[in-house]
Specification:
The complex is a heterodimer. Chain A is an all-alpha fold. Chain A has 15 helices and one strand, in the order H-H-H-H-H-H-H-H-H-H-H-H-H-E-H-H. Chain A has a single domain (about 15-340, about 350-400), classed as Formate dehydrogenase/DMSO reductase domain (Formate dehydrogenase/DMSO reductase fold). Classes of the chains: A mainly alpha, B alpha+beta.
């Protein structure tokens, strides 16, 4: 019987490690500066308006929150579904889940009109509000995943890992359902108002989370000269391919449903055909860059042999995912709401019936990027101070029976 | 002997009595409506909580609404201190400035019929903005008026995403020259209050008053629960539609000729 692979904190003394921390720190400082600027002046310094009320910060925040629950999947596969090969990957997965959620929530909170009143949102809950549910779900997620990590990292608590992992898995499903429902339950806007958005967000989280996980794993093993064998790498790559295909499937069903309903035809024409930038983002960004090219890379044997290309494919999944969330959040608002069915608005002072424009400013973009920086900084910092990463993920350590195909 | 005198006195008494009676009746006639009106007007003392005995609403006759007339919008701006009349909202772009009420001109896609109407918060019975608000800052009073509590609004803008009428605005910068009865804070959301400060003092919303002063008489304000109110009678007689009635929000603002 093979021995358990030891976990070992990274040394983290190299100048490149400190450069990484410094770079991420600079992004965090820049985002805090952007927050101060937006808060001091008010949101008029952003591209957001009374037509596009949620902008690029929400795109980054929702992406990170969705990815946070998805990145926990790797741990769930090991604990809830008892796949031994994933066990060495579980600690990093749980850590990254906490880090990504923290980054996403930081953006959401700092983009509030009155962030100093967060305490109100934390102490009073309108239980009919999906936002209020989400606040409970986010806080619960932190608590459950921390307990789950604890059971994994303290030797004598190992017997509770399975139950904690299963609880975390169920909680994360609820969390992403909640995030998707923020949009799915908005009846007024043609782009939302679809119950399929909740399960679609769940499958998006599988894909985005795993893509980020693969890149973090590649970077940390590459930079620390630890072996990362094909046995584990190819499993993750193939699984990501399945998730990317599943996202495409859900997107297809979502649009087919809308195409069937007469009241959503105009919205579909907007996204699929006549929406200018939103149509381009959908076909080129979301479908081709975020879906088809990664699938070709992952499933063409000659291409999939190259670690670099697979990493590039994972990066494309992330870029395509950000574009998808952009399309949902910004595209869904840019398309004019039908306030007067059967009528055309010929005069208004509030842009009724007109496609809204949105150009993100540097400040709000920096705030959004800051969320990513916070998440990556937390991960880079924690893998140095505690034993999150297995000393080796070489094939012989992960699966002695693995044979390269 | 004394009878003629008596007769005279009796006649005088009768006259005096009749005179007093008529005077009293006239005085009563003059005073009674005033007293009755006072009684109606002060149906709710200032210290009494708002109750669901009333449901305040508006009725707008689009056939009477003047095309190109913006008296209701100007009156709302003057009353509540927003729009062009508040010069402190200087940095915000046009799409960022607050709009509580706007005039919209519509053309029927089928018939080409053109109509003009004011659009503001519809004061729904089941307001989506209230459902989605995480902190309870968006709330509906028992008398049906939907408001934002500026003290607990965290500025998340979820209500703006959820409102089917785009009735709400986010304040994008610090504002000066605010009205005492209508506070407006940077980073919070606001919308038509149905001039709640007037309604609570038995007044009429500024937009309705302005429409009447302009001679259009296109807007009615009143208690939808009182079958004798002018708005209820007009609704009972000629009907009134909701905008996006398909959403079943049971709006407090109704339109005729939509």
């Amino acid at each position: 019987m093979k021995k358990n692979i030891p976990f070992l904190a990274i040394e983290g003394r190299s100048s490149s490690y400190y450069s990484l921390l410094a770079l991420l720190g600079a992004f965090i400082l820049a985002s805090l500066g952007a927050f101060y600027y937006m808060e001091h002046h008010g949101h008029y310094v952003t591209g957001m308006s009374n037509q596009i009320v949620w902008g690029i910060p929400h795109v980054f925040a929702v992406f990170l929150i969705v990815a946070a629950s998805g990145i926990l999947n790797v741990a769930s596969i090991s604990s809830a579904f008892n796949k031994k090969a994933y066990k060495p990957l579980a600690r990093l997965s749980a850590l990254a889940a906490i880090a990504l959620l923290a980054g996403g929530l930081m953006i959401l909170v700092l983009d509030l009109g009155r962030p100093e009143r967060l305490v109100i949102a934390m102490t009073y809950y309108n239980l009919k509000s999906i936002f209020a549910w989400n606040m409970l779900l986010y806080n619960g997620f932190f608590a459950i995943v921390i307990i789950y990590l604890w059971t994994m990292m303290q030797r004598n608590l190992g017997k509770y890992t399975r139950i904690a992992g299963t609880a975390a898995f169920l909680w994360r499903l609820a969390l992403t359902t909640g995030t998707g429902s923020i949009f799915g339950f908005i009846v007024a806007r043609q782009g939302y108002d679809a119950a399929i958005m909740a399960p679609m967000f769940v499958i998006m989280s599988f894909s985005f989370g795993l893509a980020i996980y693969i890149l973090i794993l590649m970077a940390s093993y590459n930079w620390t000269d630890r072996p990362l064998g094909d046995a584990i790498f190819n499993r993750l790559k193939n699984l990501l391919g399945v998730f990317v295909a599943a996202v495409l499937y859900f997107v297809t069903v979502y649009h087919l449903t809308n195409l069937y309903e007469a009241q959503h035809h105009d919205f579909e024409m907007f996204i699929l055909k006549d929406g200018g930038i939103y149509t381009q983002l959908f076909w080129v960004g979301q479908i081709i860059i975020g879906g088809i090219i990664p699938l070709i890379i992952f499933y063409t044997p000659s291409l999939a042999k190259s670690r670099g290309l697979v990493g590039f494919g994972a990066l494309l999944v992330i870029i395509g995912g950000l574009i998808q969330v952009y399309g949902i959040i910004i595209g869904g608002q840019a398309f004019p709401m039908t306030i007067f069915p059967g009528k055309e608005v010929i005069e208004t002072t509030f842009a009724d019936g007109a496609i809204a424009t949105y150009i993100p400013t540097l400040a709000e973009t920096l705030l959004g990027l800051g969320g990513f920086a916070v998440a990556l900084f937390l991960i880079a910092f924690c893998v140095k101070i505690m034993d999150f990463l297995p000393a080796s993920l070489a094939d012989k350590d992960v699966d002695p029976h693995y044979k390269a195909s | 002997m004394t009878q003629p005198v008596n007769t005279k006195e009796t006649t005088t008494d009768l006259y005096r009595r009749q005179f007093l009676g008529k005077t009293a009746a006239a005085a009563g006639f003059a005073l009674a409506p005033g007293m009755l009106l006072t009684e109606i007007a002060h149906a709710k003392p200032a210290d009494e909580a708002v109750s669901d005995k009333n449901r305040w609403g508006l009725l707008i006759n689009t056939n009477k609404c003047g095309s190109g007339c913006t008296a209701c919008v100007t009156a709302c701006q003057t009353e509540n201190g927003w729009g062009e009349l508040n010069h402190s909202e200087e940095h915000s772009r046009a799409s960022q400035k607050a709009v509580w009420i706007r005039k919209v001109k519509l053309k029927d896609k089928q018939t080409g019929h053109v109509q003009s109407l004011p659009l503001m918060c519809q004061h729904c019975e089941h307001p989506p903005c209230v459902d989605v608000c995480p902190t309870g800052a968006s709330f509906k009073r028992k008398d049906g008026i939907v408001l934002v509590d500026k003290h607990i609004c965290i500025g998340c803008r979820y209500c703006m995403m959820a409102c089917p009428y785009k009735a709400r605005s986010f304040i994008h910068e610090a504002l000066q020259n605010q009205k005492v009865h209508s506070p407006r804070g940077k980073g919070t959301v606001e919308s038509c209050t149905m001039c709640v400060h007037r309604v609570d003092n038995d007044g009429t919303p500024a937009c309705v008053e302005a429409c009447n002063a302009e001679g259009h008489q296109a807007m009615y304000f009143g208690d939808l629960k009182d079958s004798n109110s002018a708005i209820s009678k007009e609704l009972a007689k000629n009907g009134g539609q909701q905008i996006r009635a398909d959403l079943d929000l049971n709006t407090g603002v109704r339109y005729q000729g939509l």
